[in-house]
Amino acid sequence: MILNKLYFILPLILLVNSCTEGNTSSAVVDGDVETLAAVDTTGLAQATFASGCFWCTEAYFERVEGVKAVISGYAGGEKPNPTYEEVSAGATDYAEVVQVYYDPEEVSYQELVEVFFATHDPTTLNRQGPDIGAQYRSIAFYRNPEQEAIIRTYIQQLEESGAYKNDIVTEVQPFERFWEAEAYHQDYYRRNPNDPYVVSVARPKVQKFEANYQDKLKPEYVQ
Question: For the whole prediction, is pTM greater than 0.85?
Answer without folding.
Answer: yes
